[in-house]
Design goal:
Helix content: 40-55%
Number of helices: 12
Pfam families: ECH_1
CATH class of the largest domain: Alpha Beta
Distance between the termini: 53 Å
InterPro entries: ClpP/crotonase-like_dom_sf, Enoyl-CoA_hydra/iso, Enoyl-CoA_hydra_C
Structural class: alpha/beta
CATH superfamily of the largest domain: 2-enoyl-CoA Hydratase, Chain A, domain 1
Protein name: Enoyl-CoA hydratase/isomerase family protein
Shape: globular
Number of domains: 2
Radius of gyration: 19 Å
Strand content: 5-15%
GO molecular function: catalytic activity
CATH topology of the largest domain: 2-enoyl-CoA Hydratase, Chain A, domain 1
Largest sheet: 6 strands, mixed
Family: Belongs to the enoyl-CoA hydratase/isomerase family.
Strand order of the largest sheet: 1-2-3-4-6-9
């Protein structure tokens, strides 16, 4: 294991102060910037390690934002303390000895979170600073777009700790960077910098250190200004149209008539003709 990888995993392995109950009370925080919800993983003692408490809290938050909070039209996912997420909480793994069935249930929790982000009706933008390793990489890849600090580091670290990629990464990484590059990243488990992540398509934009969150909010605000129904159907199409050309054709024929009948489409056409900005209501 490289020194760089070992140091990064230290943030998820119990290095440093041990957190108490109060430290975990607000392990996921949410604030709003207009129509944009900013979701912050708040476990800086361990570089926002993907503990079970973190997973469950994120599921609760994304379930609410995707399905219950009509005022939120786009979401930003980020981490506290200058890091995105260092991956699974290795100290938690060492402390527990679950059965095979219990392990399956724990993995299923990560899958549920992945599905909420990846197949949800609202666009999600990752804002990445610092460490983005293991399950942190999975979370970033599950988002629709990723904005990265130019000092961020990425690693598909699973093989180095005797695990398979989880939280949807077996699907999303090939979708982002292509099958060959995904295979290389998974097998080699090498740390890559933000410039490389941008070049291979793992992230969509880089910023100066400390600037990822503002840039991600700006991009999410742009998404929030789009017709919500169209965005929801577009996300569904992107999830389901990649299996075959027949799937893509079928979705085009089935879903485009729905968008043509929305009030937001009518408003967009009227605004264009009247040379004004459209006001979308989600109807």
């Amino acid at each position: 294991m490289s020194i760089e990888l070992n140091e990064a995993l230290g943030g998820a392995s119990g290095a440093g102060d041990q957190p108490g109950t109060d430290d975990l009370k607000d392990i996921v925080q949410v604030r709003h910037e207009g129509d944009v919800a900013v979701v912050t993983m708040n476990y800086p003692q361990r570089r926002n390690a993907f503990s079970m408490k973190m997973r469950v809290a994120l599921i609760d938050v994304f379930q609410h934002l995707m399905h219950e909070d009509a005022a939120t039209r786009a979401i930003v996912l980020t981490g506290a303390g200058g890091h995105f997420c260092a991956g699974g909480d290795l100290s938690e793994m060492q402390a527990l000895t679950p059965t095979l069935l219990e392990l399956r249930e724990r993995i299923a929790v990560g899958v549920r979170l992945f599905r909420l982000i990846y197949t949800g009706t609202k666009p999600v933008v990752a804002a990445v600073e610092g460490t983005c390793f293991g399950a942190g990489l999975s979370l970033a890849a599950a988002c629709d777009l990723a904005v990265s600090s130019n000092e961020a580091k990425y690693c598909c670290a699973f093989a180095m700790v005797g695990l398979l990629p989880d939280t949807g990464l077996l699907w999303t990484l090939p979708q982002k960077v292509g099958g060959g590059k995904a295979r290389e990243l998974m097998l080699k488990a090498q740390v890559i910098d933000a410039a490389t992540a941008l070049r291979i398509g793992l992230v969509n934009q880089t910023t100066e250190a400390g600037g990822a969150l503002d840039a991600a909010i700006q991009q999410a605000a742009r998404f929030a200004s789009y017709p919500p129904v169209t965005l929801a159907l577009l996300k569904a199409s992107l999830v389901n149209a990649g299996n075959s050309i027949e799937d893509a054709w079928r979705l085009e024929v089935d879903l485009n008539p729905l968008t043509r009948q929305t009030g937001d489409h009518t408003e967009a056409v009227a605004a264009f003709m009247e040379k004004r900005n459209p006001v979308f209501t989600g109807t």
